[in-house]
Structure formats: C-alpha cells, structure tokens
Amino acid sequence: MTKTKKKFHPMRRLEPYFYLLPSILVISAFLFYPMLDSLRLSFTNWDGLKEAAYIGWGNYDKIFHNNEFWNSIWVTVIWVVLSVVILPLTGLLYGVMVEYLSPNRAASGVFRTILFMPMMMSYVAIGLLWQLIYDPNLGLVNSVLGLFELIDPVNPIQYLSNADMALFWAFIPVIWQWSGFGMVMTCAAMMNIPHDIIEAAAIDGASKTQTFWRVVLPLLMPTVLTGSAINLIGGFKAFDIIYVMTQGGPGSATKVTSILMYRLAFTENRFGYACAMAVIVFLLALVLTGLFNKFRGSVDRSVGNA
Known about the structure:
This protein is mostly helical and 306 residues long. Helices cover 70% and strands 1% of the residues. It contains 12 helices and 2 strands, in the order αββααααααααααα. Helix 3 packs parallel to helix 7, helix 3 (67-99) runs antiparallel to helix 9 (208-236) and helix 11 runs antiparallel to helix 12. One of its GO terms (cellular component) is plasma membrane.
C-alpha cells in the first residue's frame, strides 16, 4: 500500500510569515523608514517647519569642506578606538577575576553582581554622577588626592576643562559602566570551555597561569572580538554621557559627530544638513564594522569556531 504525499494548502506555507509580520511592521516603522527618510532629507534644505527644498548634493559638498565636521569625525574615531580596545580588555579582566580567580562560586556571584550593577543605571545619571566626582573643588577625586597631599588645593586639577585630556576623562565612566557587559560575555565563554582541555594542560605540568595564557585566552579571543564589534557600533552612537558631562567642550575637544548633528538639527534647525552627516557616519560605521567582522571571522576559523 503506497502512502500518498500530504498536500498543504498554499496559505499554510505562508503561515510562518504571518507570525513574523508584527515584528516586521514595527521594525519597518521605527528603523527602516527613519533611515530611508533621513537619506531623502539629506538631499534637501529643510528647517523642520517649511516644505523641504531639494538641493541635490549641496549638503554633502558643504560637509566635505566643513572643518568642524572632520574634527568631530576625528574625535569620534578616537572614542571608537577606545571603545574597541579598552572595553573588551577590562571586560576580560573582570571575567577572569570573577570566574578564574575567585575562591568559590558564592564569591564569584557576589563580584559578578557588583561589577554588573553600573549597567543598570541610565547614561544621564552616570554622566551627572561623574561630573560631580570630577568637580575640581568638591569632587571625590580631588578630595582624595588632596587628602594625601598629591595636589595643590589652591590649584586643583580641572579634569573636564582640560582640552587635551577631557575626552579621556569622559571615557572613564564608560569603562566603569560597560566593562560589566564584557564580563558577562567572558564568563559565559569560560563556562563553555571543556574541562578536558584545561585538565589536559594541567596534566602536562602547566601552572594555572600558564594554562590561562596557552589554552584559555586563545579560546576567549572570538568572544573578546565579538565584544569589540559591539563596542565599535556603540562608539559611533556615543552621545548621552559626553553631552551631559561636557556638552562637547571645552571648545571642540569632546564634540563627537552625534553632538554636532544634534546641535545642527535641534538648535540651528538644519535638519537636511544633519541628515547628510548622519548618512556619512552610517556608511563609515558600516565599512569599519564589515572590515572588523572579516578579521573576527579569521580569528574564529583559527581557533576552530567556524
């Protein structure tokens, strides 16, 4: 007796897509449409009130001759490099501390919770908090340094007013907040490392430190680079903490492109010009992310993850 092949109604084949339809509509409304509309507005002169006037490549021509824009790109790139390099390393350090060096699981859980707590705070709250910490006269940092007579109380250190170092000091709160994210990724990766590999290294006579450098760290590199890719994208979106702490100053020392676009759009009402800048930054971030993902893929293949 032969079995007849069951035929499905054509609509049954489309059924899975109907379940995806609400998500597709939401993503289209709040992601794809704003992106496409920003691209359209980048070719116009629009103040947000009157009808947008098409000007072709006029905004882009102005941007490429705007030194303020290129300075903001340079500041943004520095911020992105700090995010890509420092945040994964501090996350790796935290992860090793709580997962590899902790005396027991209870202590590991306590340290993991404490180090992750800053991520639950808002950017604005963190910016205001660290602005107070950096206060030259009443801030915690200068108070501690003054207690040990390491600074002159009459001439305290001006952390956020120093054009050469303001960007670095503004990045410290980001390390404090986002290292916990890298820690979680590192801990998850370390838990997935087979114990047989570590035990085999121990049998060969390697110490715990040697085992980490020879065995554990190479296996963690794909996770570290994944964190770097996420931080690369986040670095281009940096706005909240910098704006709260310095508003882009002193001068243009911390004026990343997002702050420049914000001022052009919502202070000077040059929405078309700001949208053109957003398109250029998006393309730059897209290219750098693609190149970084290629490098990350080669690392994955070298350790056998791909």
